[in-house]
Amino acid sequence: MSICCYDWQRQLNEIGENELTCYQDQIEKLGVEVIRSSILAALNQERFDVIWFEFYFAARVNIGNVRLYQPQAIVVVDSVDVHFNRLLAKAALSGMREDQIHASKIREDELSTYSRSDFVVVVTKDDQKILEDNIRNVRCVLLPNIHDVPPCGERDHVDEATLLFVGGFRHEPNVDAVTYFCTEIFPKILNAVPHAKLNVIGGSPPESVLRFSSENVSVLGYVPDIVSYYHSATVSVAPLRFGGGMKGKVGEAMAYTVPVVTTTFGAEGFGLQAGEHLIVADNAGDFADQVVRMIKDKELNRRVARAGWCFINDHYSYEYLFEKVISSFDEMKKAAPRKLSFVNLIKIRALKFYQENIKWRLS
Q1: Strands, E assignment, 129-221
Q2: What pTM was estimated for this model as a whole?
Q3: How far is residue 104's CA from residue 99's CA, in Å, rounded to a whole number?
């Protein structure tokens, strides 16, 4: 039995009860029991063989209780991307000292958490090397993004000049990317293609993104079903100026046979060929020129779209990666969990005593 425990209230606020219930129903149909409770409650109620955390910060505040209540469990932290590496890229872009300080603080917390886990899941070889260079005896499992790849579309039904950006806006690189695109790139595109439209999709858009809504820009927020937007998109744009890991928005667009124009940051981690599987441009003028080219040159549009689809289907589809996932889980199941040092065990037991016997009296 697999059990999923998550922050119900946060997800409720982000996508609404109807969609959240729909997702939960789909998960339960796969045989996963969903618990709407705290992690501590789940640790007290069940016995686990493997405990999998998404993101280091979720593991950081809970790994001590996991070791105390579930000493037999293997602890896996899914990095999604190496956060401090992304933040260092942001600091290099901004040149601000506070960004550098923040990246250094996250680096310390992130590496400390990974060093206390049994396995760290990484999505790219670059991320794996970063962790191996910084943590002694770290055990990394390389599991890249896996995409549901529909049949390759022929691109005859697309709108004439509809651009698509996809990305949740709790993720800072997406806020920066849309701001950069709408202020520095899109005006140049409109000079060449005045009827071009941009659809911006992603949950929790801030006011700094909503303000770009106009006759040519639709900020749609969270969309339950994104497929129709991919089907009608001429080009998917991913003008990321900093980031890390492997970009889901890039792989997903290629899986839907939509040609992608992105930056070096957007293309990293895939191992693809720029100019063949997608288009890479790292300054505003070049980016705008490449988008206009993809709008006007229909044969180029079809060729890049199909090459991108073939690449994702051949390297990042469920069928291609199924055995890799199974063997990775087998590797994790055979391992022995790390043991707490005596000092850390005493600290955690003291914290447990405080939480159970003293904290409630002070509240």
Answers
A1: 140-142, 162-166, 197-201, 217-221
A2: 0.88
A3: 9
